[in-house]
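Supplementary notes for students who missed Thursday's class. We covered one full example, reproduced here. Read the sequence, then the structure, then the short commentary at the end.
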Amino acid sequence: MATVKSIAFNAGNFVVTTDEGPPTLYPIGDMLRAADIPVLTIGHVTVLTELADLFVTLLRTLIERDVLDEEFSEGFDLGYIHDVLVANLRAEWR
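Structure (token representation):
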């Protein structure tokens, strides 16, 4: 019986190396079923957009009340956050 020395991932495959012979590739797709992969529906996208709108509203409110300013830690600023929310989640800046 062969002893497994390592398991790695490489371009859609599990690569199993044993102490006998060359590494064996096992396609990952063969191990997955459709039920294992979550489905993204329009309902999920709508909820994410609503969440982005709420987040933007919260940010604006906190800035207007002087709780936050437009500068955030680690190089983020309000403009960057706005651009990401609008571009990726279709949030509206109200």
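Commentary. Strands lie at 4-10, 13-18, 24-27. The radius of gyration is 23 Å. If anything here is unclear, bring it to office hours.
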